[in-house]
Every structure is written in C-alpha cells, then in structure tokens.
Amino acid sequence: MSRKIVLVLMALMMARFCYADVTAEIIGKAIDDNGNIIIKTQYKVDGVEVKSRYPVENGKYCWITMYNVTHFANMTEQEISEKINKDISDFSKTLIRKKFIEVANKTVNLQNIIGQTSIETKAIIQISPELEWEVKTSGEKIEKVITPVPITQ
Fold first, then answer.
1. Which one of 2, 49, 50, 71 counts the least CB within 10 Å of its CB?
2. What pLDDT, on a 0 to 100 scale, did the predictor assign at position 8?
3. CA 8 – CA 59 distance, rounded (Å)
4. Other C-beta atoms within 10 Å of 37: how many?
5. pLDDT tens, position by position, 88-138
6. Cβ neighbours, 10 Å, residue 137
C-alpha cells in the first residue's frame, strides 16, 4: 500500500515539471460597445497565468481578440472556429518566443564589457541618394557625392 502512495507522489512530482509551454483557454465571448465580437482567452506559460491589461473575468486574467463579421465572410462555423484557434495559436507562439528570450537573455555573460570605452570621431548623414555629409561634433562637415555603382549581370 505505501509503495503505491510513493509511486503516486513521485508521478505527481514529475507531472509538476511537465507543463506544456503555453496553454490557452477561451473563457468567454461578448459584443463590445462598437459591435465587435470579443473572444476572451486565458493564457498560461508553464502553468503560470499571464497577466493582461484587460479586466479580470471570473477571477482569471483574459486577453481580448476582436473580430467583426467581415473577418468571417463566407466561412462555415468550422472555418470560423479554425480561424479563432489559429489566432490563439499564433499568440501562444508569441508568448513562447517572449519567454525564451527572457530566459535566454539571463544566460548571456556581458560582464567583460563593463568598463569598455569606444570613441567615434565622425558620423554620416545621408542627405539624398546622391549626397551625404561626414560630420563631426566640432561642426565640421565634408560633403561627399555618391556615385551609383552599376549592377552588372
């Protein structure tokens, strides 16, 4: 009996780390003051709810996607459902990319650049396709005519 309990506890502990990266649940729908169709979706990244700027819906943060009838022109109910699910999937992928960048940025070691100095003495201002100025902080300017290089094939 205790062996089963240990196995169950081990399985539960392992399941804790087996989150899908992003889960999305449609938690509501509405029509806004402008007549737009509103789809309310809750997103979680690694099991943690993603906060949004929209009002909380039934204790859950929700993200809003707006549609109108023109988005669904000549579509069947199945096609409408597929479009909404694709939009949700696309935003889920955006959240995955955002989380990846957040985590990966923490692994970049930039300690070696602290204290480095760089000095620039001039900059280029493109005036037109044919003219640029080389400028300095002293107010000095050198005009340069740009000669297009013909592309040969």
1. 2
2. 47
3. 30
4. 17
5. 999 999 999 999 999 999 999 999 999 999 999 999 999 999 999 999 999
6. 9
At 4, the pLDDT band (50, 70, 90 cuts) reads: low
pLDDT of residue 2: 61
Amino acid residing at 25: E
Tokens 């204290």 map to which residue? 115
DSSP string of 30-86, one letter each residue: EE-TTS-EEEEEEEEETTEEPP-SSPPBTTB--EEEEE-GGGGTT--HHHHHHHHHH
The predicted model scores a pTM of 0.65
Nearby residues of 153 by Cβ (< 8 Å), 6 or more positions away: none
**How far apart are the C-alpha atoms of 123 and 126, rounded to whole Å?**
10
Closest CA to 29 of 41, 17, 18, 14: 41
pLDDT number for residue 20 = 56
Residue 19, Cα to own-chain centre: how many angstroms? Answer: 20
